[in-house]
From TrEMBL:
<dbReference type="InterPro" id="IPR016162">
    <property type="entry name" value="Ald_DH_N"/>
</dbReference>
<dbReference type="InterPro" id="IPR016161">
    <property type="entry name" value="Ald_DH/histidinol_DH"/>
</dbReference>
<dbReference type="InterPro" id="IPR015590">
    <property type="entry name" value="Aldehyde_DH_dom"/>
</dbReference>
<feature type="domain" description="Aldehyde dehydrogenase">
    <location>
        <begin position="15"/>
        <end position="85"/>
    </location>
</feature>
<dbReference type="Pfam" id="PF00171">
    <property type="entry name" value="Aldedh"/>
</dbReference>
<protein>
    <submittedName>
        <fullName>Acyl-CoA reductase-like NAD-dependent aldehyde dehydrogenase</fullName>
    </submittedName>
</protein>
<keyword id="KW-0560">Oxidoreductase</keyword>
<dbReference type="GO" id="GO:0016491">
    <property type="term" value="F:oxidoreductase activity"/>
</dbReference>
Amino acid sequence: MNTQQIESFSVLKMKSLDQIAPEAINGALIQAEARLEIWQKKSYYERVAMLARVADQMSDKTGQLSLLIALEIDKLLAQSHEEITLM
């Protein structure tokens, strides 16, 4: 996921699985496999740097991620916010 995709993230744009065409799911899986191959070719240090950037971006998106967790696994918003801030 690139920075632009993270910035445009919105819980309101999410769809349930039955709203997504099987072809779209298959396409996403193929794309994920291709990206996994790219990830596996990166050095340990490149991976660490990328994960550090993700962690930084997570702290910037605490509110949205908390809402996502609350909706996805039926937690209180305060509990999901606490989980994000502990990361």
